[in-house]
UniProtKB/TrEMBL annotation:
Residues 4-227 form the Capsule synthesis protein CapA domain. It comes from Sphingobacterium bambusae. The lineage of its organism: Bacteria, Pseudomonadati, Bacteroidota, Sphingobacteriia, Sphingobacteriales. It comes from the Bacteria. CDD domains: MPP_CapA (cd07381). InterPro entries: Capsule_synth_CapA, CW_Biosynth-Accessory, Metallo-depent_PP-like. This is CapA family protein. Pfam families: PGA_cap. Belongs to the CapA family. Gene3D superfamilies: 3.60.21.10.
Amino acid sequence: MRHKLLFVGDVVLQSAPMFSEELQALIEDQDFCCCNVEAPLAGFGAAVKKTGPLVNQRADAAPLLRNLGFDLFAMANNHILDYGDMALQHTMQAFGADVFGVGTEEEAYGMLVKELDGIRYGFVAYGENGFGALNGDREYGHAWVNSPRVDRDLATYKMQVDTLIVQVHAGVEMVDVPIPEWRERYRQLIDQGADVVIAHHPHVVQGREVYKGKSIFYSLGNFYFDGISDSEMWNTGGVLQLVVDNGEIQIADLLLVSKQGNMLSIKPKAEIQQWLEQLDRKLMDAEAYQKYVDRVAIDQWEQHHKNYYAKPFNGLARYSLKALAKHVKRLFFNREVDYSLLWHNMEIESNFWIVRRAIQKLHKSK
């Protein structure tokens, strides 16, 4: 039996989406359509204490997404617990039984199984460590991809289904290549039984590779994410269609969509091919890839992390009138150590790995 499954990246609705006729026809042609619900619904809970933005979305996002054709909802991501347990519980209830990757430990690490014509499809979702991850310091949140149980779970789940689909929310934001540590981890997920790995979180599309005959899509980017940026990269997302024949993935076709206002449209084929080939080339040449990631790490250090590491201790990483004024203000009015920011820097894998790479390269150059 032949089935079609469609996956998109991050979704945060403040406006009501509209789809082009071509995109709507594509969605209607699928047996299942899945999106990453990036934030809880507004109106419940209270903001948690964390470093980074707090995000929620319009209260009627669940019926809006279902009416648009989505029927599977991955929720293992870094914003889903931004407004606490109550908001997450309400969001899960609003979307119904087709949610996976969040809840109690049993719920979050569990596999959602859907059967079509006797073929069993298994869906699991994980995120990197973060303020909402089930990493041992909370009882409610999202599944953590580096939890010791994940590899064991995947080996077990693979024996229970014909096709095991793993989604991961991880990576360095606004960077168009995965860092080596995530490439290695996603390959491990294939080794443990995943038939495909589909990732998001960087907010931009990244390249693809085939490992041991199985596809890895490093980031689908944003599908429809309101309110933060209007850049082309932010508003360009991947739409992945899997064609599965008797439980075997035969086709993995990646398209690109463009968000303009509240309208989503599929990009022209020639533009998609050119865009994806450029991304894929960055992964093919091992030496060039390593050099590119090194440059990204150093750039991230200079633009962001140097200041992040100075700020918790009221330090000063860059000298400018604005920075000096803020530093003086902190010295007089806020001398406490920002442990939340330190945790953000050291416990979230992408942050730790990219900083470690930058320090290694900068240290060697001295």
